[in-house]
Structure formats: structure tokens, C-alpha cells
Design goal:
- This protein is of the alpha/beta class and 532 residues long.
- The protein folds into two domains: 2-238 and 355-413, 3-Layer(bba) Sandwich (FAD/NAD(P)-binding domain), CATH 3.50.50; 244-351, Flavocytochrome C3, Chain A, domain 1 (Alpha-Beta Complex), CATH 3.90.700.
- It contains 14 helices and 18 strands.
- Strands 1, 2, 5, 6, 7, 8 and 17 form a seven-stranded mixed sheet that branches.
- The structure holds flavin-adenine dinucleotide (FAD) and succinic acid (SIN).
- Succinic acid binds at residues 47-48, 260-262, 353, 389-390, 392.
Length: 532
């Protein structure tokens, strides 16, 4: 198959880029590939909303920039922060033009929510299901564009580069180029090659590397792992954001239900097992301190009490307002016998967002030619050591737009690469038992949760490293002998992601933002990104 523009991923980053390149180049074919159903994305689960300076009567670009820089703890790229904050407003207005509904006051002004680290109310939202509304809008918009095709249930295995043409490609090879991807078609079980002039990776996050995460099962870091295998540049992988308040449900592991930070923005209070409102012991910004601070405080309270959760107290909140803003959370709690306006909600931190990823420049270009990255899989420089709440959807739209402007200038000068070989399955057999994959996955999630969680130390990192070596060795052997399956490839990708997180964590001899190592509790005077 050949397509001019190839987009991997159907979340906000992939769909925004696809709509724009397709509209600008009606004579070119745009193909979106996604590994499960088209709407199964992190985007769909976004709750709190999208940050933007929409009301300049009391907010300003400077305030949003400053809040982003403070959260990022010294590691944000200031130019990128300015770009995202300033260009973000135009991107939000485009989304509204495409049909997204954000909640409004009776006078027609947007209802703007507040979340941790924000000095002003600036979060546009659609109740507590903002992501669902955005995904709906974008999937409807692509249906209106005739030169876009969306192919679901196709698992992208690897990027095609000079390596597949028989050349030795290393980290120091200049001008590594991307010619397309190999894809496992899950409907036919065949591996196909898709040649493209330009490829956009919009493969999202990697929360599934941990035992408890707010991310859906698709979030296995495939794009980052593919770029690493292709010898592209990866940055700042140690900065994994744990959301402070995932709903605690005994026995539930994997994807946890989120209780949006906007609930704390509207007045909810965190309490420990004794009923004490403990945030005053940790930070003067209390419940609305940045996420790293709140998650560490909860972690500490859980350790003191020896429990697996703390409580979110919404009982002083106005019932009608709560039902209007958070109907989905209300329903979920009620389904578990919790009335959020009468009972405390049990909550615990869960892996939520990867601040690092595929290093891109200010046009979304990666270190590999003809390959862009946008959204959660990318590391643009916006988030630094910790992402400010609700800046992720904004970043994805701004960088997908920037990549689009760059891509449409290039496309006419590009040709399809010829001579690309078919996928080589020689020497592989059908998997004999899935337990080899599922057990390794359990071990991986456990070791990452226990050794690479909110608080780290050198001994834990060393142990994680040794166990990962073994998992890596066993999985590579299995991969060489077995016909590929999404389960095997995701395990392999997640081991790569875990390795990148551990290695980056080892390189950072300090505590900063989301990376807290008790052997180096202070910030270092030297600012550095961790590049792998
Ligand atoms: P995604 O939306 O995750 O899309 C990734 C796509 O890539 C999917 O279609 C997937 O199938 C596809 N894919 C991945 N690997 C492959 C492969 N190998 N082959 C083919 N396809 C592949 N951010 C905010 O700014 N505000 C919020 O309020 C907010 N709330 C959140 C709440 C929750 C519960 C979660 C989980 C995240 C939240 N975030 C929020 C973060 C934000 O939703 C994500 O960072 C953002 O949606 C990522 O968008 P994306 O397009 O990069 O990736
Ligand atoms: C939330 O709604 O609390 C999540 C917001 C985000 O991750 O930006």
C-alpha cells in the first residue's frame, strides 16, 4: 500500500494533523492507522479539559506561561511554552469551529475550571467528559474529508528505514530516513508494508507499563519504542506523571477510573485515614499544588497509615453544581454505592502521563527524516520535569498544526521509496502458550510500580535494571522464534519503555519535578535533559 501522508494514531494529535493535511492537499491520500477501535485513545478519557487563555479580563498569556514554567521545575523550553500558550487559543477556536461544545455560563461566556498549578480559572471543558466530546468532534470531522481513510485494527510493528534496505544504522548514522511502516492487519492476520512520503507518529502514552494507571489498554508506548529501535532520539523518559486521584477500587488493576483534578478545583479536600486535611502539611497551595507535590503527599500519607488509599471529601460542595459539572463521576461513584456528596471517595495515585518521549523540534520533526511526532508520544520541551494540568490536549493541537504547516511545504518534493522488502517471518512459529507473555507482563508492571513509582532510590533502580535485563532477554528470544501478535509486540515495546524510564532515572542524579530519588533529594544546579 502507498499513501502520501501516513498517520499512526486516532487521538487528538493524529486526527488534528490528518484533517489539516488532507484539507490543504486534496489531491493527496491521507491514511490513519489505529490499533483497535478508532475512538479507543487516551484522548477519549480526558476529563478536566483544555487549558487556554480565553478570558483576558483577568487572565493573560504571561500567567499561563509562568504557571507552565513553575510546574516544569526548570526544564521547560521557554520558547516552546510561549508558542503553545499563544498559538493554543487559535487551535481551541478551530476545534470549536469543527463542532466541539464547551460548557458555557448563562451569559454565553465559557465556564472556565481550575486545576492544580493554575493561577487562574482557564480550563475549558465539556462537563467531566471533555475528551469524549473532542474525540467525537474530530472523528466526525474526518468523515467530511474525502481524501482521508481511517483503518482500524491494524497494529504498526516498526518504522521502515535504511536498516530494512540492508544498511547498518546506528545512533550516529546521519540522515536516518523513514519510508513507511510494517503493519499487522488484525482482521487478516497478515503483515503488510505501508509506504509513505511522510509519517506522523501520534501513538499516545505508556501508562500501561504500570500496574495502576488512568490510561486505557492501548497506552503501551509503541511509537516511542519504534523510534528507539530505529535509532531516533528519545528524551526525558524518567518524568512519569502520577495523577493524585484515581478512584480506588479494591482488586482493580490496569485502567483505573479518574476523579478529575477539577473536583479539587471546585473545592474538594484530601483527607487521610484520621480525617485530617493533610495538604496543609505539604504545600501552601494545598489541594491545588502541582501534581507531583500532591501525589507525593498522598503517597507519604498512605505509607504512614499503611493503607492503599486516602479520601477525597466533596461533602461540602453544592450538590446541583457537582451534578452539572461532574455527572460521569457521580454516576460511577453511585454505581459503587458511594454518594460523593455524602461519602468520602477513596482515591490513590496512578500512572497518568509521560512527559518525555520522542524528541521533536518546534515543527514536530523528529531526529529521523520524514518522521513527525505529536501528542503524548512526543517530547516537545513544553512540560519539562512535570506537565501542568490540561496542557496536554493543547500541546497536541498546537504541534499537530505546526507539523502540518511543515509537512505540506515538503510533500510535493518527495517520492515513495522503492525496493522495500516484505516483512521477514522466516524461522517463526505460532505461539505455543500465551502464559509466557502474560506472566512477563505482570512481572514488568509489578517491578515498575514497586521500583519506578512516585519515590525512587538507587537500589530500586539497580534491581529494576537487573530484572529488566532478564525480561528483555527472554522476550527477544521469544520474538525471534514466534509469529508476531499485538500481545507480544506490546510486551516488547513496554520492556523498551521501562528500560528507557530506568536508564533516564539513573542518569538524573537529582530530584526534580516528577523524578524524586531519596539518594539525591536536592535539585542540581545544572539543568540537563536526559537523552537516549
Ligand atoms: P491518544 O489519544 O492516546 O491516541 C493514541 C492513538 O495511537 C490511538 O488511536 C492508538 O490506538 C494508536 N496507537 C498506539 N500504538 C499503535 C500501534 N502500534 N499501531 C497502531 N496504532 C497505535 N490531558 C489534558 O490536557 N486535559 C485533560 O483533562 C486530560 N485528562 C486525562 C484523563 C485521563 C483519564 C487520561 C488517561 C489522560 C488525560 N489527559 C488529559 C492526557 C491526554 O488525554 C492525552 O495526553 C492525550 O489525549 C494524548 O493524545 P494523543 O493523540 O497523543 O494519543
Ligand atoms: C484531570 O482531569 O484531572 C486530568 C487533567 C490532565 O491530565 O491534564
Amino acid at each position: 500500500m502507498e499513501t502520501d501522508f501516513l498517520v499512526i494514531g486516532s487521538g487528538i494529535a493524529g486526527l488534528t494533523y490528518a484533517i489539516k493535511v488532507a484539507n490543504a492537499c486534496p489531491d493527496k491520500q491521507v491514511t490513519i492507522i489505529t490499533k483497535t477501535q478508532s475512538d479507543e485513545t487516551n484522548t477519549k478519557y480526558a476529563q478536566g479539559g483544555i487549558a487556554g487563555v480565553m478570558d483576558t479580563s483577568h487572565d493573560s498569556f504571561q500567567k499561563h506561561i509562568s504557571d507552565t514554567l513553575i510546574a516544569g521545575d526548570g526544564l521547560c523550553d521557554e520558547k516552546v511554552v510561549e508558542i503553545v500558550v499563544k498559538e493554543g487559543v487559535q487551535r481551541i477556536n478551530e476545534l470549536i469551529d469543527w463542532g466541539a461544545n464547551f460548557d458555557k455560563e448563562a451569559d454565553g461566556d465559557f465556564k472556565l475550571g481550575k486545576e492544580g498549578g493554575h493561577s487562574e480559572n482557564r480550563i475549558l471543558h465539556h462537563k467531566d467528559i471533555t475528551g469524549r466530546e473532542m474525540e467525537r468532534t474530530l472523528l466526525a470531522a474526518i468523515k467530511e474529508v474525502p481524501n482521508i481513510q481511517l483503518i482500524s485494527h491494524c497494529f504498526v510493528l516498526d518504522l521502515i528505514t535504511q536498516h530494512h534496505l540492508g544498511y547498518l544504522v546506528t545512533k550516529s548514522t546521519p540522515d536516518i530516513e523513514c519510508y513507511g511502516v510494517y503493519v499487522l492487519n488484525l482482521k487478516t492476520s497478515r503483515i503488510e508494508k505501508v509506504c509513505a512520503k511522510l509519517v506522523m507518529l501520534a501513538t499516545g502514552g505508556n501508562g500501561q507499563v504500570y500496574r495502576s494507571t488512568t490510561n486505557p489498554v492501548i497506552a503501551t508506548g509503541d511509537g516511542v519504542a519504534m523510534v528507539y529501535r530505529a535509532k531516533g532520539r528519545i528524551e526525558n523518559m524518567e518524568f512519569i506523571q502520577f495523577h493524585p486521584t484515581a478512584l480506588y477500587e479494591p482488586g482493580i488493576r490496569g485502567q483505573c477510573f479518574l476523579i478529575t483534578e477539577a473536583v479539587r478545583g471546585d473545592g474538594a479536600i484530601l483527607r487521610n485515614q484520621d480525617g485530617e486535611a493533610f495538604m496543609r502539611k505539604y504545600d501552601e497551595r494545598l489541594e491545588l499544588a502541582p501534581r507531583d507535590v500532591v501525589a507525593r503527599a498522598i503517597d507519604n500519607e498512605m505509607k504512614i497509615a499503611g493503607t492503599e488509599y486516602v479520601f477525597l471529601d466533596c461533602t461540602a460542595m453544592d450538590r446541583d453544581k457537582f451534578l452539572e459539572h461532574f455527572p460521569n463521576i457521580f454516576e460511577k461513584c453511585k454505581s459503587l454505592g458511594i454518594d460523593p456528596l455524602k461519602d468520602f471517595i477513596p482515591v490513590a495515585p496512578a500512572a497518568h502521563y509521560s512527559c518525555g518521549g520522542i524528541k521533536t523540534d518546534e515543527w514536530g520533526r523528529t531526529s529521523i527524516k520524514n518522521l513527525y511526532a505529536s501528542g503524548e508520544c512526543a517530547c516537545t520541551g513544553l512540560h519539562g520535569a512535570n506537565r501542568l494540568a490540561s496542557n496536554s490536549l493543547l500541546e497536541a493541537m498546537v504541534f499537530s498544526h505546526r507539523a502540518f504547516t511543515n509537512a505540506v511545504q515538503k510533500i510535493n518534493a518527495l517520492q515513495f521509496k522503492t525496493g522495500i522488502p516484505n516483512w521477514n517471518e522466516e524461522g517463526t512459529n505460532k505461539p505455543s502458550e500465551m502464559i509466557l507473555i502474560t506472566q512477563s507482563l505482570k512481572e514488568l508492571k509489578l517491578l515498575m510500580s514497586d521500583y519506578l513509582g512516585i519515590v525512587r532510590n538507587n537500589q530500586r533502580l539497580q534491581r529494576a535494571n537487573r530484572r529488566l535485563d532478564l525480561l528483555h532477554e527472554e522476550t527477544e528470544t521469544l520474538y525471534e522464534r514466534t509469529q508476531v501478535s499485538p500481545q507480544l509486540c506490546e510486551l516488547r515495546n513496554m520492556i523498551t519503555i521501562a528500560y528507557l524510564i530506568v536508564k533516564s532515572a539513573e542518569l538524573r542524579k537529582e530530584s526534580r519535578g516528577l523524578h524524586y530519588n531519596t539518594d539525591y533529594p536536592q535539585r542540581s544546579a545544572i539543568l540537563q535533559n536526559t537523552i537516549l
